[in-house]
Amino acid sequence: MLIPKRTRVAVESLVYIAANGVHQPIPARQVAQALSVSLAGLESILRVLRERRLVCSFRGPGGGYQIDSDLKKFTVLDVVKFFESSQPKPGNDTACDDFALDFQEACKQAFNSENLHDLVNAASASDPGVASAAKPRFGLRPLPSPVSPRGPNSVFQLYACDSGLRSQAA
Q: Rounded to 5 degrees, what angle do the CA atoms 149, 151, 157 make?
């Protein structure tokens, strides 16, 4: 059972909203920036979570998303099922098919053993910065400042640039 990116983002957004949205709603734009995902994709995920009553939304200035229900009642497997399409059934019984079914069953048991509340507590304990600001996903260095060319911008400025260079040389 491979977890699609959409499902992973759903779990991460629930953890982020639960860790940060205790006192006030968290705007979707802030969640998208913290998780480094597109706002449109995140809004479609949050719509599904809102329909399933995991989050509630508030409109207007100061609006955003907050956790709507008790996270102890939901497991990671529940969230996976919200976003998972039906699994194809293997056609013939081979060793690979048996392994795939065993692996899928082991993943389901692991996801079912972890509720979302424990996941939020583990994320908050392991990373105290979860409540203040999310760390970037990739450790990239900042880009150097762009260098502007020292030449004319158009053919009409060519004469002014040429005369300026002649005066500097003299």
A: 140
Q: How many angstroms separate the CA atoms of 119 and 117, rounded?
A: 5
Query: SS3 of 13, please?
Result: helix
Q: Which two tokens stand for residue 158?
A: 């060519």
**Which residue is it, tokens 């998303």?**
65
What per-residue string of b and e applies to 98-115 under the rule 16 or more CB within 10 Å gives b?
Answer: eeeeeeeeebbeebeeeb
Q: Which domains does the chain have, with CATH numbers?
A: 5-136 (1.10.10.10)
* Alpha-carbon dihedral sign for residues 15, 20, 23, 28: negative
| pLDDT for the residue 23 | 78
Cα dihedral 101, 79, 7, 121 sign: negative
**Nearest Cα residue to 118 out of 150, 62, 83, 70:** 70
pLDDT digits (tens, 9 = 90+) for 13-33: 888 888 887 778 889 899 899
Find the length of the chain: 170
